[in-house]
Specification:
transferase, Aminoglycoside 3'-phosphotransferase, Chain: A, domain 2, 40% helix, 2 domains, alpha+beta, five-stranded antiparallel β-sheet, Phosphorylase Kinase, domain 1
Length: 341
């Protein structure tokens, strides 16, 4: 199945009477950074849009739910959480072969890694601080007022997610990885009791899933809401901390070995403290367990990407194979955090 091209004629015909102000024809350019749902920049006579679609082909159950992405971003449009404006959700697979949605194209800067090597220390500090602000705002969203109170099930979030991602991982498993088996087992033994915190969570909160102003440091939009649900807010916080433990550079996109103070970047503890200040929290309990879980889930995601690459329906086949090599490394890192080492 082809995930690299788009039937622009079919899209233009569909949007002609459904998108106010639409002016075809369309030029489509695929973004190469996405691994899950193929995403295209649409250039039209009336301006630019973004189309995000479900991949064609046989997919894992409950994955690639672009309708959920559309719903949550539409619900957040009038809140303090920065999102792109949603326009149309097409649930008819016959139009281009799979479900898709259309949203505004947000013009700004995207930082592929948190080092932001071409920026000043002051800019880096400002960007990370606004990333922190947006995260706190996300976890303060009124679920009832936004109509999202049913966006995720009740119960222990980590327990539910561990079960879900274990199933996803086993369904896409290609080789036996002892560290992953140990991580799954030990996470099951150390999950904290449910403390009743229940908020909207993004599920993949990191700097490369955000658009910032071309001038300044304000976050204009959080992207890639596929893993969003109702759950425990510390999972998103742990996702940020987990990412920063990885090697710096285009592959790891982390901060390991970086002199953060010299670069204007906060320590893990400083970022967590600022988040707690913004939300009025005393501290973050069991953060190591949440970080270990983040490593586990990232390993599961990479394994799924690898499987799609091997099956021939990955959004970026070459990168899919590279990501697959990280699965055992993520599992080992998760074990280190879980064991307090």
């Amino acid at each position: 199945m082809d995930t690299q091209t788009l039937d622009t004629g079919a899209v233009a015909a569909y949007l002609k009477d459904k998108l106010p102000g639409f002016d075809g024809p369309i030029e489509a350019i695929k973004f190469q950074t996405g691994q899950s749902n193929p995403t295209f920049l649409l250039k039209t006579g009336a301006g630019n849009y973004v189309l995000r679609r479900k991949p064609p082909g046989q997919l894992l159950k409950s994955a690639h739910q672009v309708d959920r992405e559309f719903r949550v971003q539409a619900a957040l449009w009038d809140t303090d959480v920065p999102v792109a404006k949603m326009h149309i959700l097409c649930e008819d697979d016959d139009v281009i072969g799979s479900m898709f949605y259309i949203m505004d194209h947000v013009d700004g800067r995207n930082f592929n890694e948190p080092t932001m090597k071409d920026e000043t220390p002051q800019t880096r500090a400002g960007v990370i601080d606004d990333m922190n602000r947006a995260l706190a705002a996300l976890h303060e969203v009124d679920l009832e007022a936004t109509g999202l109170s049913d966006y995720g099930p009740q119960g222990n979030y980590l327990e539910r997610q561990l079960g879900r991602w274990t199933k996803q991982y086993r369904a896409s498993e290609t080789v036996d990885i002892p560290a992953m088996n140990s991580l799954i087992a030990e996470l099951g033994e150390q999950l904290p009791e449910d403390d009743g915190q229940r908020t909207l969570v993004h599920g993949d909160y990191r700097i490369d899933n955000m658009i910032f102003a071309s001038e300044g440091t304000k976050c204009l939009a959080i992207l890639d809401w596929e893993l969003s649900t109702i759950g425990h807010p510390f999972a998103d916080l742990a996702q940020v901390i987990m990412q920063w433990q990885l090697p710096a550079g285009a592959e790891g996109r982390g901060l390991a070995g970086i002199d953060r103070k010299a670069m204007g970047l906060p320590s893990d503890a400083e970022f967590v403290a600022k988040y707690c200040e913004r939300r009025g929290l005393a501290d973050v309990a069991d953060l190591n367990v949440f970080v270990a879980f983040s490593f586990f889930r990232m390993a599961g995601i990479c394994q799924g990407v690898l499987k799609r690459g091997l099956d021939g329906n990955a959004s970026n086949p070459e990168r899919a194979l590279k990501l697959g090599a990280y699965v055992p490394l993520f599992a080992e890192s998760g074990l280190r955090f879980l064991r307090g080492s």
